[in-house]
Amino acid sequence: MGLLLRMGVLPFWVLFLLRVVRAATDQADVGALQVIYNSLNQPPQLTGWKTSGGDPCGESWLGVSCSGSSVVSIKISGLGLNGTMGYALANFLSLRTLDLSNNNIHDTIPYQLPPNVTYLNLARNNLSGNLPYSITTMLSLNYMNVSHNLLSQPIGDLFLNLNGLSVLDLSFNNFTGDLPNSLGLLSNLSTLDMQNNQLTGSVNVLANLSLNELNIANNHFTGWIPQKLVGIPNLLTEGNNFNTGPAPPPPPYTPPPPGSTGKNHGTGASAHKPSVVNNQSGSKRLAAGAIVGIVMGSLLVAVVVLVGLVLCLRKIPKGGHAKETAISNSLEIHSLGSVANMEIHEQMAKVDQSVTSLKPLSADKMTGERSVSKTAAGKRGKSPITAASYTIACLQTATNSFSQECLVGEGSLGRVYRAEFPNGKVLAVKKIDSSALSLQEEDNFLEAVSNMSRLRHPNITALLGYCVEHGQHLLVYDFYGSGTLHDMLHFTEDSTKILTWNARVRIALGTARALEYLHEVCLPSVVHRNFKSANILLDDELNPHLSDCGLAALTPNTERQVSTQMLDSFGYSAPEFAMSGTYTVKSDVYSFGVVMLELLTGRKPLDSSRQRSEQSLVRWAIPQLHDIDALAKMVDPALKGMYPAKSLSRFADIIAICVQAEPEFRPPMSEVVQALVRLMQRASANKRRSNDETSLPYKIPEHDPSDLSI
Choosing a second label site near 174 at 20 to 30 A (CA), which of 89, 458, 612, 633? Predict the structure, then answer.
C-alpha cells in the first residue's frame, strides 16, 4: 500500500517540477521588468513585481502575460504610475503588446523600444521630447497611440517601413512643422488622428491613403484639402487655415505613387483601380492602354509645339544671323524630337515587358529642380532631405556678411557664425571651407546633409537647414547661448557659472545617450569621430547637445584630416586611432571617457603648462581612479568639495572602463547609459526624492557641505 501511494505521489511531484521549470521566465525579460519597476519608483499597485529575482511568468505579476518562458504582453494602464519607462525596453524581444497608458509617466520616450511590438499605447501620460528614431525598425507595428502627452518638435520621417500600421494617434501634443513624406506610404493605415497640435503646411501627402477616419482639426495647416480626402467617412478638419476658394487646376500629368488609385488627370479619363498583381492578361492590356494613351497625348502636344515653332521661324527675316538662329532652332527641335521618340520607344518596351514595374517619375523631372551634380541628385532621390534650403543671400544678411562680430567658433571644417533672422530667430551657421572638401566629398555633401537632417534626439544639435549655392556649402543649426562644455570648464571666470556636480552628471548622461543613439539606434551606426568637450553645446538649463554629428562622412581618414583635426583633438583620440588611423564606435567610447575625466577633474586632455607627468590627463588619471584618497585629490577644485563621495567613486569606475587601451574591452554606450542611470537611481533611493532620469534626483546647495547623501 505504501509503495502504491509513493507510486501515486511521484507523478504529481514530477508534474509540479516540470511546471516550475516551464514557468521560469527568460532572464532578459526578468531584468527588463525589474528596470521598469525601479524606474516607476517601485509602486505598490504593481502587485507581485520585484526589484530582484522572481519569475514573472510563474508568479503572475500584475499585467504581465507570457507564452512559455517569454513575456509577450505588459498591460499596466490606469494605475497612477509615476516615474519613467526605464532604459531596457529593447530587451523584450518577444513582447507584442505594451500598454502604459493613463498614468503619470514622464521623461522622453526611450530611444530603443521593444522591436517586435504590434500594439503600443503610451497615451495620456506626461511624456516629452519627440518620437524616437527606433520606431523605423518596428516592422510589426499595427497600433500606435501616443496622444495626450507633451511631445513636440517636427514629426520625423519614421514610417517608411511600417507597412502594417493601421491606427496612428498623435493627437493632443505639441508637434510642429510639416507632415513627413513617409506618412503617405502607410498603405494599410485606416485611422489617423493628429488633432490639437501645431502642425503646418499642406496635407497633400495624405491624399492617396485609404483612410476610414482622419482628424486633423486644430492645427495650422494651409492650402487646399485634397478632393480625395473629402470622401473619407469620418473627416474632421476645422480649426485650420485651409483655403476655401477654388483649388488650382492639377498639373498636366502627375504620376500617382505605386499602388495608389485615382483619376488620370493627363487624359481626363477615369483610371481603373489596379487589381492585386495577378498577371492576368486583361489587366495588363488595360494598364498598357492607359500608358499608351498618355504617351500618345504627350506626343500630340509635342507635334503642336513643333508646328508652332516652324510657323514662327517662317516669319523671321532673311539674313545671316536669322538664318543661323533658324538652323540652330531647327537642330534643337530635331534633337528634342529624337529624344522624345527614343523615350517613347523605351516606355513602350517597358510596357510590353511588365506593366506592374512602372514607377513614378523622379522628383527632379517632375519639378524641374536643378541638380547640383548627378551623383548628389541620384543619392538625394534615395534619401530625401528634411532640412530647409536657405539661399546664400539670406544667410549673408543674417550674419552681417559673415562678419567677425558674428563669429562664435572655428573647427577643422570651417567657421561657425551667429545668425539673426528678421523674425527674431537666432541660429548657428557653419560655413564650410571650400578647401576642406575634395571633389568627391562635394558630390557626397547632399547625401551627408540628408543623413544628418534625419538625426532626431534631444541631446543632438538638430540640422535645421543647408545651403549649396555659388560653390558655397553651409549648414544651419540651433544656436545655444551658453557656449560649449570646453569653455564652461576651462575658460569661465564667473563663479556663478561653475558647473555643480549635479550638472556634470547630467551632462555626462545626456551626451552618453546621444552616442547611444548614434551607435545603437541609427541604422547603419553613426560614428562621431570628433567627440570632445568643444563639440558639446549647453543650453540655458545646461542640458548638453552634441554637435557635428554626421560630419564624419565629409572627413574620411586621410592624411589631410590627420594633419588638421588630429592636432586639435589628440588628447581625445583612442590609442588605435593614434597608431593606425582606424576609428570605430569604440573609439568614440574612449573619447567619451576623456570628456568624463574633464568633468571630474576640470583639467584639459592635454595641458603643456603642467609638469610633464601631468600633461596627459588620461595617463595621469588612470592609475588613481580606484584609489579613494587619490581620487578625492583629483576632483575639480572649483567644486569646493561639494560632491557625494560614493557617486564620485562610481563615476570614476565608468571612466575606467571607457578609457581602456584595448577597444574590445570598452563597453557599448547603452551599458554606459545604464550605469549612469543606476548611479542616479541609487542617489534617488537614498534621498527619497524624484527618480527623473534626465536630471540628478538630488540637489546639493552651493554652501551646505553637510548635504552629501551618497
Answer: 89
pLDDT, tens digit (0-9, with 9 covering 90-100), for 668-690:
999 999 999 888 766 555 554 43
Report the distance separating Cα 484 and Cα 464, nearest Å: 19
Nearest to 261, CA basis, from 213, 224, 209: 209
Provide CB contacts within 8 A for 501, sequence distance 6+. 639, 642, 643, 644, 647, 648, 696, 700
- Cα dihedral value 307, 309, 311, 313, nearest 10: -150
Number of residues written out for the chain: 710
Q: How many CB atoms lie within 10 A of CB 621?
A: 23
Does residue 691 have a pLDDT over 50? no
CA distances from 326 to 303, 304, 317, 662, 664 (A): 18, 18, 10, 74, 72
CATH of domain 380-478: 3.30.200.20
Residue identified by cell 511521484 is: 10
Q: Return the number of other C-beta atoms located less than 10 Å from residue 659's C-beta.
A: 23
- 104 DSSP β-pair partners: 82
Helices assigned H by DSSP within 478-616: 485-490, 501-516, 559-569, 575-580, 585-601
408 within 8 A of 429, measured Cβ to Cβ: no
Task: Give the containing element (helix H, strand E) for 20.
Answer: helix 2-23
Q: What is the largest CA-CA distance in the chain?
A: 129
How far is it, in rounded angstroms, from Cα 237 to Cα 221?
Answer: 9
Considering the domain 18-236, what is its CATH architecture? Alpha-Beta Horseshoe (3.80)
> Which three three-digit cell numbers place residue 95?
513582447
Q: Which helix (H) or strand (E) holds 168?
A: strand 167-169
Give domain limits for the chain: 18-236, 289-350, 380-478, 485-687
**C-alpha cell read off for 657:** 572602463
Asked if residues 213 and 233 have their Cβ atoms less than 8 Å apart, the reply is yes
**Closest to 531 measured CA to CA, from 473, 462, 583, 495:** 583
What's the grid cell of residue 151? 511631445
For residue 524, whether the previous peptide bond is cis, meaning omega lies within 30 degrees of 0, is yes
Instruction: State the helix-helix crossing angle for 501-516 and 585-601, rounded to 10 degrees.
Output: 170
Nearest to 572 by CA among 555, 550, 556, 587: 587
Q: Per-residue pLDDT tens for 482-539?
A: 889 999 998 876 666 789 998 999 999 999 999 999 998 888 889 999 999 999 999 9
The phi-psi region of residue 214 (left if phi > 0; otherwise alpha if psi is between -120 and 50; otherwise beta) is beta
Report pLDDT digits (tens) over 18-39.
444 455 898 889 989 998 998 8
Residue whose grid cell is 549673408: 396
- Is the entire prediction scored with pTM above 0.85? no
Cα distance between residue 75 and residue 97, in whole Å = 7
d(C-alpha 140, C-alpha 115), whole Å: 8
Rounded-to-integer distance, Cα 632 and Cα 649, Å: 9
pLDDT (average), residues 687-695 = 42
Q: In terms of DSSP H, where are the helices of 422-500?
A: 439-443, 445-453, 485-490
Dihedral Cα 50, 51, 55, 56, nearest 10 deg:
60
| Topology annotation, domain 485-687 | Transferase(Phosphotransferase); domain 1 (1.10.510)
**Nearest CA-CA partner of 511 in 478, 533, 541, 526:** 533
18-236 and 485-687 share one fold: no
Per residue in 53-104, pLDDT (tens digit) is 889 999 889 999 999 999 999 999 999 999 889 878 988 999 999 999 999 9
Rounded Cα distance between 351 and 587, Å, is: 52
Beta bridge partners of 616: 606
CA–CA gap between residue 527 and residue 473 (Å, rounded): 22
C-alpha cell at 252: 498636366
